[in-house]
Structures are given as structure tokens and as C-alpha cells.
Amino acid sequence: MPIGGYEDFDECVKAQKLKGHSDESAHRICGYLEQQAKKKRGNK
Questions:
Q1: Are 15 and 6 in contact, with CB atoms under 8 Å apart?
Q2: pLDDT tens, 16-37?
């Protein structure tokens, strides 16, 4: 599922890590983006 402009969760994490975020932080950021994407689709 696309997340915040990324192809999937793993791509999001990779991109966040390239931006200098830690692994834990990248997972938290992408988790938040995934929740927002699900809300927009109506999948809470």
C-alpha cells in the first residue's frame, strides 16, 4: 500500500533513514504515515 508518496512501508523506512533518521524513528514516522493513509481510505 502506498504510504506518504512511497511505494510501501519498507521504501518509506529506507527513505527516512537516508534523511538521517534512526531505524526506530523511521519506523515511527512511517507507521504514522501509514495510519494517515488508512484513515484517508476509510480503513481505520
A1: yes
A2: 999 999 999 999 999 999 999 8
